[in-house]
């Protein structure tokens, strides 16, 4: 998954305004106690970050 596709899915899931806020503020244990931004900055693959997010919240099947 490209980073562009990751952010498209984030926007579709959360909306343009909330996607950034969620990525910046929501700490997830599946990401080792990191936020989305911290995980991506640490070199995590966007696909792995997206999978962690899907396991944390209820993401519609067509976005998984």
Summarize the structure in words.
The protein has 64 residues and is mainly α. It has one domain (3-63). Helices cover 61% and strands 0% of the residues. It is built from 4 helices and no strands. It has helices at 3-14, 16-25, 36-41, 46-56. α1 (3-14) packs across α2. The longest helix has 12 residues, at 3-14. It is globular and about 25 Å long. The N and C termini lie close together (11 Å).
Offer a quick outline of the entry.
The chain has helices spanning 3-14, 16-25, 36-41, 46-56. It is an all-alpha fold.
Features:
single chain; 64 residues; mainly alpha; 61% helix; globular
Query: What's the number of domains?
Result: 1
By DSSP (H or I, 4+ residues per run), the number of helices equals 4
Low-confidence stretches: none
Topology order in helix (H) and strand (E) letters: HHHH
Shape estimate: globular
Calculate the mean pLDDT score and round it: 93
Radius of gyration: 10 Å
Strand content: under 5%
**Distance N to C terminus:** 11 Å
Helix fraction, binned, reads 55-70%
The structural class is: mainly alpha
Largest sheet: none
Number of strands: 0
Please describe the topology of this protein.
Layout: H1 3-14, H2 16-25, H3 36-41, H4 46-56
Helix pairs in contact: 1-2
């Amino acid at each position: 998954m490209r980073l562009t596709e990751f952010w498209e899915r984030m926007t579709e899931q959360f909306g343009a305004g909330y996607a950034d806020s969620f990525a910046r503020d929501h700490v997830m244990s599946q990401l080792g106690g990191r936020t989305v931004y911290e995980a991506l900055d640490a070199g995590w693959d966007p696909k792995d970050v997206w999978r962690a997010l899907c396991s944390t919240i209820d993401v519609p099947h067509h976005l998984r």
